[in-house]
Design a protein that fits this description.
Oligomer: single chain
CATH topology of the largest domain: Rossmann fold
CATH superfamily of the largest domain: Thiamin diphosphate (ThDP)-binding fold, Pyr/PP domains
Strand order of the largest sheet: 3-11-12-8-7-4-6-5
Helix content: 40-55%
Distance between the termini: 65 Å
Shape: flat
Number of domains: 3
């Protein structure tokens, strides 16, 4: 597909002027325009000959055709401003300039046939048919930002993926995938409800409202393993961490219940420990295809996004040392909140280094749990940019804005994002728009600061219920399957909690905690071992410094360096050596 972006960016009246010049003398216009008009005339007539209509009618039709081409380009660049990605409220009007009048078209043109439809795979389609398809592609539950990418190969690859995808409401997913999505959603939703019922008022920073995160992460990991990734390193804040630990990382529900019960107490000789929603975890997971992949969730303090450079550094070190700098073998995933990704400086610092040779990690998948609020601050009061993912354009990373109440759209988005990352080894962003069921933590009442928003949220069904109803309405799965899944999992959690209450489990140590436990420690300085000898012999010092202070033959240092070398040599001759030598 040729790149005619210069055509789409031109005003129809300007195109008409160039076209009239081309009709008089094709050689009088620039080669790019001449080739475009030749293709346009050929498509219009099917034989490459001039249209039999008069020049005035021909130019009038061409202006309309160019208007249709321009509106197609408009949807590709700004259609995301019409996308229905918000599950809880109407999206804010952002003036996308996609009205017919913006392109010299009127309602009278809706029934007319335009060859420009071939640009999106519609041959001799009416304007109405073209607009209908554009809305399906660009104004549905996924909004796409990618037109700012300068690299043509990457940009055209994304366009092809977006415009050639299955436009049915289920994105062409098979029944097996739909059932797995439902199971993962069920695990995420029921786990949160169970904790909310059993540990009323205890802080857990729940994922409620954004539970589609769990099937999304599952899909990323499954895709990564299938594509040869051997290790995934995740970084996230506290929101949803317990759910990720249980339903993605494989930390047992019993261990998490133990922490809620307060019976799992680690060795605190070296400090006071940390709260359960800051803890990290490592595990080996077997995927659906039987592949084994290593997962590591890095611990994170209460400082949002502080873990980002840690995850990138960890990934880079492992890629270089264990995988011979094959970045396709290790995948960094950063899970952000909408307020923190837009507001924390460490996000920009980390992202802007993503393409530097010394910090490159082969591309990071950024997943934003966009619950549209930061503590008690609405997004309108939190950022100047249209989207919280404005940082993505800085490194020309594509963004998939997706409705969190449509897990099938979420799965398509993350799978495509993973494919993009593996193919181009660049960063990619998924902005999952959802909501926060409770306050900042479970002890806060959000109705004090957002009464209207939480009136809507309180009456809104959870993502599992929304998806189960959709599956039932389409006839994909029986409603009883969803009901049975919920009941079975709740009973399983109850049995595990009962076991923990009967007999608490010991604290489960992981690395590096296991290594820390081997360190010598005491509370009484008098009991501590005598310090080990850390010095080296004079003989070794003399040998090392002799070689360090001897200049190569024929080497002529700068005068300042020469003076420094001579002063050091004088100290060495006197036998005076200190820490700053």
């Amino acid at each position: 597909m040729k790149d005619y972006s210069y055509v789409f960016n031109a005003h129809p009246s300007y195109i008409e002027k160039i076209y009239s010049e081309y009709k008089v003398d094709p050689a009088a216009v620039e080669d790019g325009w001449r080739l475009f008009f030749e293709g346009f005339d050929f498509a219009s007539n099917g034989n490459g000959e001039m249209a039999p209509a008069g020049i005035e009618e021909s130019m009038g039709n061409s202006t309309k055709e160019f208007g249709v081409l321009s509106i197609i380009h408009g949807f590709r660049t700004r259609g995301h401003l019409l996308s229905t990605t918000n599950p809880i409220r109407q999206r804010k009007f952002r003036a996308p300039h996609l009205d017919l009048a913006d392109y010299g078209l009127t309602d009278e043109d809706l029934g007319k046939v335009f060859v420009a439809g071939e640009e999106i795979g519609l041959r001799n389609a009416t304007l109405q048919q073209i607009l209908d398809k554009l809305h399906l592609i660009y104004a549905g539950h996924i909004g796409f930002e990618y037109s700012y990418i300068e690299n043509r190969e990457r940009r055209m690859w994304l366009r092809d993926k977006i415009e050639s995808r299955d436009l049915n409401s289920d994105f062409g997913l098979d029944t097996k995938t739909k059932k797995r999505i439902l199971e993962k959603l069920n695990g995420a939703v029921v786990f949160e409800k169970f904790l909310h019922t059993k540990y009323i008022g205890q802080k857990r920073f729940s994922l409620e409202g954004g539970e589609s995160t769990i099937p999304a992460l599952d899909a990323i990991i499954q895709s990564a393993a299938s594509d040869g990734v051997e290790e995934v390193v995740l970084g996230m804040a506290h929101r949803g961490r317990l759910n990720v630990l249980a339903n993605i990382m494989g930390k047992t529900y019993e261990n998490i219940f133990n922490e809620f019960e307060g019976t799992a107490v680690p060795d605190l000789s070296f400090g006071d420990g940390d709260v359960k929603y800051h803890l990290g975890y490592s595990s080996q997971v077997t995927t659906e295809d039987g592949k084994i992949i290593h997962l590591k969730l890095a611990p994170n303090p209460s400082h949002l996004e502080a873990v980002n450079p840690v995850v990138e550094g960890f990934s880079r070190a492992k890629a270089d040392i264990l995988y011979a700098s094959d970045y396709d073998k290790i995948l960094p995933i950063l899970i952000h909140g909408d307020a923190s990704i837009a507001g924390q400086g460490v996000v920009y610092e980390t992202v802007q280094m993503s393409k530097l040779e010394g910090y490159y990690t082969g591309g990071t998948v950024h997943f934003v749990i966009n619950n549209q609020i930061g503590f008690t601050t609405n997004f309108d009061d939190a950022r100047s940019a249209t989207y919280c993912t404005g940082v993505a354009s800085m490194v020309q990373a594509p963004v998939f804005h997706v409705n969190g109440d449509d897990p099938e759209a979420v799965i398509w988005a993350v799978r495509t994002a993973m494919e993009y990352r593996q193919k181009f080894n660049n960063d990619v962003f998924i902005d999952m728009v959802c909501y926060r069921r409770h306050g900042h933590n479970e002890g806060d009442d959000p109705k004090f600061t957002q009464p209207d928003l939480y009136e809507k949220i309180n009456s809104h069904p959870d993502p599992r219920e929304v998806y189960a109803n959709r599956l039932t309405e389409r006839g994909d799965l029986d409603k009883k399957i969803a009901t049975d899944l919920e009941e079975k999992f709740w009973n399983d959690l109850q049995q595990r909690l009962d076991l923990v209450k009967e007999k608490s489990l010991p604290y489960s140590y992981q690395e590096p905690e296991q290594a820390w436990r081997k360190l010598t420690k005491t509370y009484d300085p008098n009991d501590f071992r005598k310090s080990a000898a850390t010095g080296i012999s004079k003989k070794n010092i003399d040998l090392i410094l002799k070689h360090l202070m001897t200049l190569p033959e024929g080497f002529h240092p700068l005068p300042k360096i020469s003076r420094l070398q001579k002063s050091k040599q004088a100290l060495l001759d006197e036998g005076v050596v200190d820490w700053a030598f």
